[in-house]
Amino acid sequence: MDYQALYQSKLTTAEEAVKVVKSGDWLDFGWCTGIPVELDKALAARADELYDVNIRGGILLWPLAIAQVPEANKHFSWNSWHMSGIERHMIDDGIAYYAPLRYSELPRWYRESIDKPDVVMIQVAPMDKHGYFNFGPNASHLAAVCETAKIVIVEVNQNMPRCLGGFEEGVHISKVDMIVEGNNPPIGQMGGGGAASEIDETVAKLIVEEIPNGACLQLGIGGMPNAVGSLIAQSDLKDLGVHTEMYVDGFVDIAAAGKITCSKKNIDKGRQVYAFGAGTQKMYDYMDNNPALMSAPVSYTNDARTIAQIDNFISINNAVDLDLTGQINAESAGVKHISGAGGQLDFVLGAYLSKGGKSFICCSSTFTTRSGELKSRIVPTLNPGSTVTDTRTNTHYLVTEYGKVCLKGLSTWERAEAIISVAHPQFRDELIQEAEKLKIWRTSNRR
Protein backbone atom coordinates (compact mmCIF):
# COMPACT_ATOMS: atom_id res chain seq x y z
CA MET A 1 0.00 0.00 0.00
CA ASP A 2 1.25 3.49 -0.90
CA TYR A 3 0.82 5.20 2.48
CA GLN A 4 1.98 8.59 1.21
CA ALA A 5 -0.64 8.59 -1.54
CA LEU A 6 -3.28 7.58 1.01
CA TYR A 7 -2.05 10.36 3.28
CA GLN A 8 -2.46 12.97 0.55
CA SER A 9 -5.95 11.71 -0.29
CA LYS A 10 -7.05 12.20 3.32
CA LEU A 11 -5.27 15.51 3.92
CA THR A 12 -7.59 18.46 4.48
CA THR A 13 -7.89 21.71 6.42
CA ALA A 14 -9.17 22.05 9.97
CA GLU A 15 -12.04 24.20 8.67
CA GLU A 16 -13.16 21.48 6.27
CA ALA A 17 -12.70 18.66 8.77
CA VAL A 18 -14.95 20.15 11.47
CA LYS A 19 -17.85 20.40 9.01
CA VAL A 20 -18.67 16.76 9.86
CA VAL A 21 -19.76 17.82 13.37
CA LYS A 22 -23.51 18.17 13.92
CA SER A 23 -25.58 19.50 16.81
CA GLY A 24 -26.12 16.80 19.43
CA ASP A 25 -22.98 14.87 18.47
CA TRP A 26 -20.60 13.24 20.92
CA LEU A 27 -17.01 14.26 20.15
CA ASP A 28 -13.76 13.11 21.69
CA PHE A 29 -10.78 15.45 22.02
CA GLY A 30 -8.42 12.81 23.30
CA TRP A 31 -6.26 13.41 26.34
CA CYS A 32 -3.75 15.79 27.90
CA THR A 33 -1.01 16.77 25.41
CA GLY A 34 -3.01 15.11 22.61
CA ILE A 35 -5.88 17.63 22.74
CA PRO A 36 -6.24 19.19 19.25
CA VAL A 37 -5.33 22.84 18.70
CA GLU A 38 -6.28 23.85 15.14
CA LEU A 39 -9.37 21.62 15.11
CA ASP A 40 -10.49 23.16 18.41
CA LYS A 41 -10.18 26.66 16.92
CA ALA A 42 -12.03 25.65 13.75
CA LEU A 43 -14.83 24.07 15.78
CA ALA A 44 -15.12 27.21 17.91
CA ALA A 45 -15.55 29.25 14.71
CA ARG A 46 -18.65 27.15 13.95
CA ALA A 47 -20.17 27.67 17.41
CA ASP A 48 -23.13 29.74 16.20
CA GLU A 49 -24.23 26.85 13.95
CA LEU A 50 -24.07 24.20 16.68
CA TYR A 51 -25.96 23.34 19.86
CA ASP A 52 -25.47 20.65 22.51
CA VAL A 53 -22.24 19.26 21.13
CA ASN A 54 -20.82 17.05 23.90
CA ILE A 55 -17.05 16.69 24.06
CA ARG A 56 -15.01 14.23 26.14
CA GLY A 57 -11.39 14.68 27.16
CA GLY A 58 -9.30 15.51 30.18
CA ILE A 59 -6.25 17.11 31.82
CA LEU A 60 -6.27 20.33 29.81
CA LEU A 61 -2.90 22.07 29.75
CA TRP A 62 -4.15 25.14 27.85
CA PRO A 63 -7.55 26.89 27.49
CA LEU A 64 -9.90 25.51 24.86
CA ALA A 65 -11.15 27.79 22.09
CA ILE A 66 -14.62 26.21 22.26
CA ALA A 67 -14.89 27.31 25.91
CA GLN A 68 -14.23 30.95 25.06
CA VAL A 69 -17.00 31.60 22.55
CA PRO A 70 -20.02 33.67 23.71
CA GLU A 71 -22.52 31.53 25.68
CA ALA A 72 -20.25 28.55 25.21
CA ASN A 73 -22.39 26.29 27.42
CA LYS A 74 -25.29 26.55 24.96
CA HIS A 75 -23.14 25.20 22.18
CA PHE A 76 -20.74 22.80 23.91
CA SER A 77 -20.31 20.72 27.05
CA TRP A 78 -16.91 19.54 28.23
CA ASN A 79 -17.02 16.14 29.95
CA SER A 80 -13.73 15.50 31.72
CA TRP A 81 -12.25 12.18 32.80
CA HIS A 82 -9.77 14.06 35.01
CA MET A 83 -9.65 17.79 35.69
CA SER A 84 -6.84 20.31 35.65
CA GLY A 85 -7.02 23.83 37.08
CA ILE A 86 -8.26 25.11 33.71
CA GLU A 87 -11.18 22.70 33.80
CA ARG A 88 -12.12 23.68 37.37
CA HIS A 89 -12.72 27.21 36.13
CA MET A 90 -14.81 25.80 33.28
CA ILE A 91 -17.12 24.23 35.89
CA ASP A 92 -17.82 27.73 37.23
CA ASP A 93 -18.62 28.86 33.68
CA GLY A 94 -21.23 26.10 33.35
CA ILE A 95 -19.52 24.28 30.49
CA ALA A 96 -17.49 21.55 32.22
CA TYR A 97 -18.56 18.44 34.10
CA TYR A 98 -16.58 15.65 35.72
CA ALA A 99 -17.18 12.01 34.79
CA PRO A 100 -16.39 9.82 37.84
CA LEU A 101 -14.31 6.81 36.92
CA ARG A 102 -11.87 4.15 37.89
CA TYR A 103 -9.28 4.98 35.28
CA SER A 104 -8.31 1.38 34.47
CA GLU A 105 -11.84 0.77 33.18
CA LEU A 106 -11.91 3.63 30.66
CA PRO A 107 -11.03 1.73 27.45
CA ARG A 108 -13.75 -0.81 28.24
CA TRP A 109 -16.27 1.99 28.79
CA TYR A 110 -15.73 3.17 25.23
CA ARG A 111 -16.03 -0.34 23.87
CA GLU A 112 -19.06 -1.41 25.92
CA SER A 113 -20.82 1.24 27.99
CA ILE A 114 -20.96 4.84 26.79
CA ASP A 115 -22.29 6.58 23.69
CA LYS A 116 -19.83 5.93 20.89
CA PRO A 117 -18.02 9.05 19.63
CA ASP A 118 -19.49 10.47 16.43
CA VAL A 119 -16.14 12.16 15.81
CA VAL A 120 -12.71 11.95 17.43
CA MET A 121 -10.13 14.73 16.96
CA ILE A 122 -6.67 14.17 18.42
CA GLN A 123 -3.14 15.52 18.10
CA VAL A 124 -0.63 12.88 16.98
CA ALA A 125 2.99 12.47 15.92
CA PRO A 126 3.79 12.38 12.17
CA MET A 127 2.99 9.16 10.30
CA ASP A 128 5.82 6.63 10.23
CA LYS A 129 6.88 4.59 7.19
CA HIS A 130 4.47 1.82 8.17
CA GLY A 131 1.44 4.15 8.15
CA TYR A 132 1.06 4.61 11.91
CA PHE A 133 0.31 7.84 13.74
CA ASN A 134 1.72 7.64 17.26
CA PHE A 135 -0.39 9.00 20.14
CA GLY A 136 2.69 10.51 21.79
CA PRO A 137 2.62 10.27 25.60
CA ASN A 138 -1.13 9.66 25.56
CA ALA A 139 -1.80 5.97 24.86
CA SER A 140 -4.20 5.87 27.82
CA HIS A 141 -7.54 4.98 26.20
CA LEU A 142 -7.08 6.52 22.73
CA ALA A 143 -6.97 3.23 20.80
CA ALA A 144 -10.41 2.40 22.18
CA VAL A 145 -11.63 5.88 21.25
CA CYS A 146 -10.44 5.53 17.65
CA GLU A 147 -11.72 1.96 17.42
CA THR A 148 -15.27 2.98 18.39
CA ALA A 149 -15.54 6.41 16.72
CA LYS A 150 -17.56 6.83 13.52
CA ILE A 151 -15.10 9.41 12.14
CA VAL A 152 -11.41 9.69 13.11
CA ILE A 153 -9.57 12.97 12.48
CA VAL A 154 -5.91 13.38 13.39
CA GLU A 155 -4.02 16.66 13.73
CA VAL A 156 -0.34 16.10 13.02
CA ASN A 157 2.19 17.92 15.21
CA GLN A 158 5.85 17.60 14.28
CA ASN A 159 6.79 18.28 17.92
CA MET A 160 4.84 15.37 19.37
CA PRO A 161 7.31 12.82 20.76
CA ARG A 162 7.05 9.33 19.31
CA CYS A 163 6.46 7.11 22.30
CA LEU A 164 7.26 3.45 21.73
CA GLY A 165 4.82 0.96 23.08
CA GLY A 166 3.81 -2.54 23.71
CA PHE A 167 0.39 -2.14 22.11
CA GLU A 168 -2.39 0.39 21.44
CA GLU A 169 0.08 3.30 21.23
CA GLY A 170 -1.09 4.57 17.82
CA VAL A 171 -3.62 4.44 15.00
CA HIS A 172 -3.05 3.24 11.42
CA ILE A 173 -3.84 5.51 8.49
CA SER A 174 -6.33 2.93 7.18
CA LYS A 175 -8.47 3.71 10.26
CA VAL A 176 -8.17 7.50 9.84
CA ASP A 177 -10.75 9.44 7.85
CA MET A 178 -9.13 12.90 7.73
CA ILE A 179 -5.68 14.33 8.36
CA VAL A 180 -5.00 17.94 9.34
CA GLU A 181 -1.50 19.34 9.51
CA GLY A 182 -1.39 21.72 12.45
CA ASN A 183 0.96 24.63 13.09
CA ASN A 184 3.24 22.45 15.23
CA PRO A 185 2.94 24.26 18.56
CA PRO A 186 5.21 23.15 21.41
CA ILE A 187 3.76 20.23 23.37
CA GLY A 188 1.79 21.39 26.41
CA GLN A 189 3.88 21.33 29.55
CA MET A 190 3.10 20.64 33.18
CA GLY A 191 5.47 21.70 35.90
CA GLY A 192 6.14 19.70 39.03
CA GLY A 193 4.30 22.12 41.30
CA GLY A 194 7.36 24.16 42.32
CA ALA A 195 10.28 23.37 44.58
CA ALA A 196 9.71 20.85 47.34
CA SER A 197 8.93 22.37 50.71
CA GLU A 198 10.55 21.34 53.99
CA ILE A 199 7.40 19.33 54.77
CA ASP A 200 7.56 17.61 51.37
CA GLU A 201 11.15 16.61 52.02
CA THR A 202 10.36 15.31 55.52
CA VAL A 203 7.55 13.14 54.15
CA ALA A 204 9.76 11.98 51.29
CA LYS A 205 12.46 10.76 53.71
CA LEU A 206 9.89 8.72 55.63
CA ILE A 207 8.78 7.01 52.40
CA VAL A 208 12.19 6.49 50.79
CA GLU A 209 13.45 4.56 53.82
CA GLU A 210 10.69 2.02 53.08
CA ILE A 211 11.85 1.42 49.48
CA PRO A 212 14.10 -1.61 48.88
CA ASN A 213 16.58 -2.09 46.06
CA GLY A 214 14.81 -3.50 42.99
CA ALA A 215 11.45 -1.94 43.91
CA CYS A 216 9.04 -0.84 41.17
CA LEU A 217 7.74 2.73 41.44
CA GLN A 218 4.50 4.57 40.76
CA LEU A 219 4.55 8.30 41.45
CA GLY A 220 1.55 10.58 41.40
CA ILE A 221 1.72 14.26 40.45
CA GLY A 222 2.52 16.98 42.98
CA GLY A 223 5.18 18.35 45.29
CA MET A 224 5.45 15.33 47.57
CA PRO A 225 5.80 12.62 44.90
CA ASN A 226 8.34 14.90 43.16
CA ALA A 227 10.24 15.27 46.44
CA VAL A 228 10.29 11.48 46.74
CA GLY A 229 11.67 11.25 43.20
CA SER A 230 14.39 13.79 43.97
CA LEU A 231 15.41 11.98 47.14
CA ILE A 232 15.51 8.63 45.32
CA ALA A 233 17.79 10.18 42.67
CA GLN A 234 20.20 11.19 45.45
CA SER A 235 19.93 7.88 47.34
CA ASP A 236 21.94 4.68 47.22
CA LEU A 237 18.98 2.72 45.84
CA LYS A 238 19.61 0.66 42.72
CA ASP A 239 17.91 -1.48 40.07
CA LEU A 240 14.58 0.32 40.44
CA GLY A 241 11.69 -0.25 38.05
CA VAL A 242 8.87 1.95 36.81
CA HIS A 243 5.24 0.96 36.22
CA THR A 244 3.02 4.00 36.52
CA GLU A 245 -0.14 5.65 35.33
CA MET A 246 1.50 9.02 34.69
CA TYR A 247 5.09 9.53 33.62
CA VAL A 248 6.56 12.62 35.30
CA ASP A 249 9.88 14.48 35.31
CA GLY A 250 10.91 12.77 38.54
CA PHE A 251 11.46 9.52 36.66
CA VAL A 252 13.82 11.23 34.21
CA ASP A 253 15.93 12.49 37.11
CA ILE A 254 16.01 9.06 38.76
CA ALA A 255 17.00 7.44 35.45
CA ALA A 256 19.70 10.07 34.85
CA ALA A 257 21.13 9.18 38.26
CA GLY A 258 21.46 5.57 37.10
CA LYS A 259 18.90 4.23 39.56
CA ILE A 260 16.43 2.78 37.04
CA THR A 261 17.24 -0.46 35.24
CA CYS A 262 13.89 -2.30 35.46
CA SER A 263 16.00 -5.45 35.65
CA LYS A 264 14.15 -6.85 38.67
CA LYS A 265 10.64 -6.49 37.25
CA ASN A 266 8.67 -9.71 36.98
CA ILE A 267 7.01 -8.47 33.77
CA ASP A 268 8.05 -5.97 31.08
CA LYS A 269 11.64 -6.41 32.24
CA GLY A 270 13.92 -3.60 31.17
CA ARG A 271 11.11 -1.16 30.34
CA GLN A 272 9.50 1.75 32.16
CA VAL A 273 5.76 1.32 31.61
CA TYR A 274 3.23 4.18 31.65
CA ALA A 275 -0.23 5.13 30.35
CA PHE A 276 0.37 8.83 29.71
CA GLY A 277 2.83 11.56 30.58
CA ALA A 278 2.91 15.30 31.13
CA GLY A 279 5.90 17.33 32.17
CA THR A 280 8.64 19.56 30.81
CA GLN A 281 10.37 19.55 27.44
CA LYS A 282 13.24 17.67 29.10
CA MET A 283 10.86 14.81 29.76
CA TYR A 284 9.38 14.80 26.24
CA ASP A 285 12.89 14.72 24.75
CA TYR A 286 13.70 11.73 26.98
CA MET A 287 10.52 9.91 25.97
CA ASP A 288 10.97 10.39 22.22
CA ASN A 289 11.88 7.11 20.48
CA ASN A 290 13.26 5.74 23.76
CA PRO A 291 13.12 1.92 23.77
CA ALA A 292 13.63 1.92 27.56
CA LEU A 293 10.07 3.23 27.90
CA MET A 294 6.82 1.44 27.10
CA SER A 295 3.63 3.36 26.33
CA ALA A 296 0.57 1.18 26.99
CA PRO A 297 -3.20 1.48 27.45
CA VAL A 298 -4.46 2.32 30.92
CA SER A 299 -6.44 -0.92 30.99
CA TYR A 300 -3.04 -2.63 31.24
CA THR A 301 -0.97 -0.21 33.30
CA ASN A 302 -3.62 0.36 35.97
CA ASP A 303 -5.14 -3.10 36.19
CA ALA A 304 -4.58 -4.35 39.74
CA ARG A 305 -3.96 -7.81 38.27
CA THR A 306 -1.05 -6.41 36.26
CA ILE A 307 0.39 -4.44 39.18
CA ALA A 308 0.08 -7.45 41.49
CA GLN A 309 2.50 -9.43 39.30
CA ILE A 310 5.35 -7.03 40.11
CA ASP A 311 7.16 -7.70 43.38
CA ASN A 312 7.98 -4.85 45.80
CA PHE A 313 5.62 -2.45 44.11
CA ILE A 314 5.70 1.03 45.71
CA SER A 315 2.74 3.35 45.05
CA ILE A 316 2.94 6.99 46.20
CA ASN A 317 -0.06 9.33 45.97
CA ASN A 318 -1.46 12.50 47.50
CA ALA A 319 -4.58 13.33 49.51
CA VAL A 320 -6.65 16.48 49.97
CA ASP A 321 -7.84 15.33 53.39
CA LEU A 322 -8.86 12.19 55.29
CA ASP A 323 -11.03 11.19 58.23
CA LEU A 324 -10.33 9.29 61.42
CA THR A 325 -11.37 5.95 59.92
CA GLY A 326 -8.87 6.25 57.05
CA GLN A 327 -11.17 7.34 54.23
CA ILE A 328 -9.06 9.27 51.71
CA ASN A 329 -10.38 12.20 49.70
CA ALA A 330 -8.07 13.11 46.81
CA GLU A 331 -10.64 14.79 44.55
CA SER A 332 -12.58 17.64 46.12
CA ALA A 333 -12.76 20.28 48.83
CA GLY A 334 -16.25 19.51 50.08
CA VAL A 335 -18.50 20.03 47.05
CA LYS A 336 -15.83 22.02 45.17
CA HIS A 337 -14.32 19.70 42.57
CA ILE A 338 -10.51 19.65 42.28
CA SER A 339 -9.27 16.86 40.01
CA GLY A 340 -10.60 13.30 39.83
CA ALA A 341 -10.15 9.73 40.97
CA GLY A 342 -7.70 8.88 38.22
CA GLY A 343 -5.95 5.61 38.94
CA GLN A 344 -5.18 6.20 42.60
CA LEU A 345 -7.43 3.40 43.86
CA ASP A 346 -6.13 1.10 41.11
CA PHE A 347 -2.60 1.48 42.44
CA VAL A 348 -3.61 1.38 46.11
CA LEU A 349 -5.23 -2.00 45.43
CA GLY A 350 -2.53 -3.31 43.10
CA ALA A 351 0.41 -2.35 45.32
CA TYR A 352 -1.05 -4.21 48.28
CA LEU A 353 -1.58 -7.31 46.13
CA SER A 354 2.10 -7.21 45.12
CA LYS A 355 4.53 -9.43 47.03
CA GLY A 356 6.31 -6.99 49.33
CA GLY A 357 4.25 -4.12 47.88
CA LYS A 358 3.36 -0.95 49.77
CA SER A 359 0.90 1.84 49.05
CA PHE A 360 1.58 5.27 50.57
CA ILE A 361 -0.92 8.12 50.86
CA CYS A 362 1.01 11.24 51.76
CA CYS A 363 -0.02 14.77 52.69
CA SER A 364 1.00 17.69 54.85
CA SER A 365 -0.80 17.57 58.19
CA THR A 366 -2.23 21.06 57.67
CA PHE A 367 -2.94 23.73 55.08
CA THR A 368 -3.44 27.49 55.33
CA THR A 369 -6.58 29.14 53.98
CA ARG A 370 -6.52 32.34 51.96
CA SER A 371 -7.43 34.23 55.11
CA GLY A 372 -4.38 32.82 56.86
CA GLU A 373 -6.14 30.26 59.07
CA LEU A 374 -4.34 26.99 59.76
CA LYS A 375 -6.54 23.93 59.09
CA SER A 376 -5.97 20.22 59.68
CA ARG A 377 -6.09 17.85 56.71
CA ILE A 378 -7.01 15.11 59.18
CA VAL A 379 -10.66 15.64 60.13
CA PRO A 380 -13.11 13.66 62.28
CA THR A 381 -15.42 13.03 59.31
CA LEU A 382 -15.07 14.16 55.73
CA ASN A 383 -16.80 17.42 54.90
CA PRO A 384 -20.23 17.11 53.24
CA GLY A 385 -19.77 16.59 49.52
CA SER A 386 -16.18 15.33 49.82
CA THR A 387 -15.38 12.33 47.66
CA VAL A 388 -14.06 9.05 49.04
CA THR A 389 -11.28 8.21 46.58
CA ASP A 390 -9.81 5.35 48.63
CA THR A 391 -12.05 3.53 51.07
CA ARG A 392 -10.88 2.97 54.64
CA THR A 393 -10.46 -0.76 53.95
CA ASN A 394 -7.92 -0.06 51.21
CA THR A 395 -5.67 2.53 52.85
CA HIS A 396 -2.26 1.01 53.63
CA TYR A 397 0.33 3.54 54.82
CA LEU A 398 -0.49 7.14 55.75
CA VAL A 399 2.43 9.58 55.90
CA THR A 400 2.62 13.19 57.09
CA GLU A 401 5.58 15.23 58.32
CA TYR A 402 4.83 13.84 61.81
CA GLY A 403 5.34 10.21 60.92
CA LYS A 404 3.97 7.20 59.06
CA VAL A 405 1.43 4.61 60.16
CA CYS A 406 0.16 1.37 58.66
CA LEU A 407 -3.64 1.13 58.91
CA LYS A 408 -4.08 -2.42 57.65
CA GLY A 409 -5.72 -4.66 60.25
CA LEU A 410 -6.57 -1.91 62.75
CA SER A 411 -9.97 -1.57 64.43
CA THR A 412 -11.67 1.83 64.47
CA TRP A 413 -10.16 2.93 67.80
CA GLU A 414 -6.70 1.74 66.75
CA ARG A 415 -7.06 3.60 63.48
CA ALA A 416 -8.12 6.78 65.23
CA GLU A 417 -5.12 6.52 67.54
CA ALA A 418 -2.71 5.89 64.65
CA ILE A 419 -4.09 8.65 62.43
CA ILE A 420 -4.16 11.23 65.23
CA SER A 421 -0.53 10.36 66.03
CA VAL A 422 0.55 11.84 62.68
CA ALA A 423 -1.77 14.87 62.86
CA HIS A 424 -0.43 18.33 63.65
CA PRO A 425 0.03 18.59 67.45
CA GLN A 426 -2.14 21.70 67.56
CA PHE A 427 -5.18 19.67 66.50
CA ARG A 428 -4.65 16.38 68.33
CA ASP A 429 -6.68 17.16 71.47
CA GLU A 430 -9.59 18.39 69.37
CA LEU A 431 -9.43 15.25 67.20
CA ILE A 432 -9.39 13.05 70.32
CA GLN A 433 -12.52 14.79 71.61
CA GLU A 434 -14.26 14.24 68.27
CA ALA A 435 -13.14 10.60 68.20
CA GLU A 436 -14.71 10.11 71.62
CA LYS A 437 -18.00 11.52 70.31
CA LEU A 438 -17.79 9.10 67.39
CA LYS A 439 -17.24 6.19 69.81
CA ILE A 440 -13.87 5.34 68.26
CA TRP A 441 -11.61 6.30 71.16
CA ARG A 442 -10.63 4.23 74.19
CA THR A 443 -9.55 5.72 77.49
CA SER A 444 -6.49 3.48 77.34
CA ASN A 445 -5.35 5.18 74.15
CA ARG A 446 -2.13 7.15 74.30
CA ARG A 447 -2.71 10.88 74.55
UniProtKB/TrEMBL annotation:
UniProt keyword annotation of Membrane present: no
Pfam families: AcetylCoA_hyd_C, AcetylCoA_hydro
Gene Ontology molecular function: acetate CoA-transferase activity
Keyword annotations from UniProtKB, A to Z: Fatty acid metabolism, Lipid metabolism, Transferase
Pathway listed: Lipid metabolism; butanoate metabolism
Residues bound to CoA: 220-224, 320, 343
Reaction catalysed by this enzyme: butanoate + acetyl-CoA = butanoyl-CoA + acetate
Active-site residues from the entry: 245 (5-glutamyl coenzyme a thioester intermediate)
Domain Acetyl-CoA hydrolase/transferase N-terminal, chain residue ranges per copy: 3-185
Domain named Acetyl-CoA hydrolase/transferase C-terminal: residues: 279-435
EC number: 2.8.3.-
Matching InterPro entries: AcetylCoA_hyd_C, AcetylCoA_hyd_C_sf, ActCoA_hydro, ActCoA_hydro_N, Butryl-CoA_acetate_CoA_Tfrase, NagB/RpiA_transferase-like
GO terms under biological process: acetate metabolic process; acetyl-CoA metabolic process; butyrate biosynthetic process
Family according to the record: Belongs to the acetyl-CoA hydrolase/transferase family. Butyryl-CoA CoA-transferase subfamily.
Task of the protein: Coenzyme A-transferase that converts butyryl-CoA to butyrate.
Protein name: Butyryl-CoA:acetate CoA-transferase
Organism: Butyricicoccus porcorum
Organismal lineage: Bacteria, Bacillati, Bacillota, Clostridia, Eubacteriales
